[in-house]
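Chapter review: from sequence to fold.
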Amino acid sequence: MRVEAYAQIQQIYKPQKAGRAQVAHGVGQTTDMLSISSIGKDIQTAKAALAGTPDIREELTAPIKAKIQNGTYTVSNESFADKLMRKLEEVG
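The token string follows.
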């Protein structure tokens, strides 16, 4: 491989610096506008509502945590096995 040829090709494909476009005063001037659809506004509202809610619902997890700490939380082996088998059937 010739290094000189590689250098010449590299110069050809070298990114050119973008020149600043000159616009005559009053001609070709535009303004940018942003318009958000009603669906976009609904999504923003939903995101704001979710940001204010906790990730964990304490009213549901607190009783289970208390039972675990007291040592009174029990899981039915049969119920667990049934749920495990149902999940396996869904995947497979």
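Two observations follow directly from the output. The chain has a mean pLDDT of 80. Residues 57-92 form one domain.
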